[in-house]
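for ur thesis appendix - Amino acid permease 2-like. copy paste whatever u need, i formatted it the way the template wanted (i think)
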Amino acid sequence: MGEEAHSIEVVSSNIDTKLYDDDDRVKRTGTVWTASSHIITAVLGTGVLSLAWAIAQMGWIIGPTVMLIFSLITWYTSALLADCYRHGDPNFGKRNYTFMEAVHTILGGFNDTLCGIVQYVNLYGTAIGYTIAGAISMMAIKRSDCFHSSGGKDPCQISSNPYMISFGVIQIFFSQIPDFHEMWWLSIVATIMSFTYSLISLALAIAKIAENGSFKGSLTGVSIGTVTKAQKTWGFFQSLGNMAFAYSYSQILIEIQDTIKSPPSEVKTMKQATKISIGVTTTFYMLCGMTGYAAFGDTAPGNLLTGFGFYNPYWLVDIANAAIVIHVVGAYQVYSQPLLAFIEKGAIKRWPRINQEYKISIPGFRPYNLNLFRFIWRTIFVITTTIIAMLIPFFNDILGVIGSIGFWPLTVYFPVEMYIKQMKVRKWSHRWICMQSLSFVCLIVSIVSGIGSVASIVLDLKNFKPFSINY
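the 3d part is after this line
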């Protein structure tokens, strides 16, 4: 009897080892490639479309240089953050499942509260930005088809509201994916789409340069006279926020790292995925931003694809816009998951009874487990982001604000402070001074980019009526 019980116990243990990690959570299956897909989905997003405009505000010298600096800062601080996934020992310490949990465990105190506010406001704002981007691309397809079917006689004015609502309906459906572990396929599809529209934008810009017969642009960017001194200043500051947004993903790095299987250590895999992802995205950013600026010069549009208007081959622009829509559907989910999970975890802890699932039979498919609380809460979340997007549908301005809010605290401050404490970096040592200097400089960048972006929103709101914007 004793031997039988012992054998049963061993079998049970073996099964558990295959299905669960050492902390009794479901076994992680992520690899360097799935992690890279998540990162590229988050980083190589619609921010690439604003980079030609951002370079136009700075010129040929400062623009590409600042973009490269942002990429290096993001790569460096991401490596610091990866070392904070496990508390104490980077390879064997207790796992932190979320960015906020890492801050709570390592720093604690007010940092915990500050991180929660900044991270979740940033994630919520990103969802709003992606709603605007998705709607603009859907409208661009509709206008393009309208323009060509009428032979250019119809101005094809279109309200953005139906398209934002349509995007919201799509997100209500996809928001029912429970967590990161079950949405790897969506990230891979979104990654493919981001490469698609980036390559099309690049190809169209190269064709435009060939058509012009020369490179446009100047060493100092938009000149005073074409715009006022104030507009030049605000535009420069806002472009910093746009570039910061283009590289923003640190706030979900820990969540992505928590999908990676071990061994090898999650730190090693995450650093490799970060290196691959930042390298790939920076290459695309440089190519798209610089060719876009070379094609349009100082008049580069806020959304690069809109600059090609309804030129032939218009169907290629339509494909690019369709790829953007598919991409932002996935990116919206990647950025929303940490916020959705945080609210659900807190609510279930307080009211355990709400965490009930109901099995729904679907003919021809396996039964679907409906969590009523998750369905209602996530639907409300999508509705609110859609409404706010309809109220403030300014793509470039929103990207600038989001980038400036999240860049310093999430990409620089918390990773630096956590790493210093985790690795016991001695105060006033050469390394400590360098890391704190980097943090201070990035704080200044966040402040000035935020001022520029808010100033632009204020100017746009002067001639704007909510829910009535047409393109």
